[in-house]
Amino acid sequence: MLESGFTSVLKTRNRDEFQSEVVNFTKRLGFETVSATVVIDHLLGEAEFITVDNTPRGYRDIFEDPNKNRRDPVMQHCRRQSVPIIWDQSTYAEKGVGELWEVQARFGYCSGIAMALHLPDGRHFFLGVDRDKPVPPDPAEVTRMVADLQLFAVHAQDAALRILTPTPSSPHAPALTPRELETLRWTMEGKTAWEVGNLLGISERTAALHVNNATHKLDCVNKHQAVLKALRLGLIR
Fold it and tell me: Which of 20, 53, 205, 220 is 20 to 30 Å from the Cα of 26, by its Cα?
């Protein structure tokens, strides 16, 4: 089941375990190759890229070429947007760089899905999966694939930042109020702000405010990441 990969990647303890979980999930999703990258923007100097992937040996030099990435329409899309992109040969042809697709297609990069999570403090998480055949023609199946990849990315970025980011995280968990913890617990159960408000006897707006405050304190970009981080820190169970 794909769902098992969501929690399994959270439990990874080192780079090898993280790579194994990412590759296994990719193959269960129906793709052969994957790239999971943490990007850290620096105020002075070049951005830092930390990548876990299973790129074919013969393609690695091209894969890591910064000039290629600057021209690659998939990479440029992910650099600017958080909406996933479903790509194939036409994506490159429409941007006038069909020759890039011709080269990568020889190594199995014919189509794929890619996305980026843009996080606070100049951090980004890129996840792309690729295959040597077209994506399924059924829109419903593709929508399911994208949704599964998005959910996996939320879990994977938490593990990636913990394992791959060279700077150690603070040993002290942020102080959340009892109300903030309560709203996160109910959010973990899938409750909306309106439902949480009814359960706690507060307004929908107040419930949303508690979740937003908790998200900010945990240095997360959305409530889903906040729940995952609170779980990892032992703040909620």
Answer: 220
151/236 Cα distance (integer angstroms): 20
* Cα–Cα nearest to 82, from 48, 52, 116, 54: 116
CATH number where 224 lies: 1.10.10.10
Amino acid identity of residue 215, one-letter, is: T
Compute the mean pLDDT over every residue in the chain, rounded to the nearest whole number: 90
My answer on whether 136 and 214 are in the same domain is: no
Both tokens of 81, joined, read 């947007």
Please compute, for residue 84, the number of CA atoms within 13 A of its CA located in the half-sphere on the CB side. 20
pLDDT at 231: 83
Contacts of 147 (CB under 8 A, 6+ apart): none
The answer on 206 and 139 residing in a single domain is: no
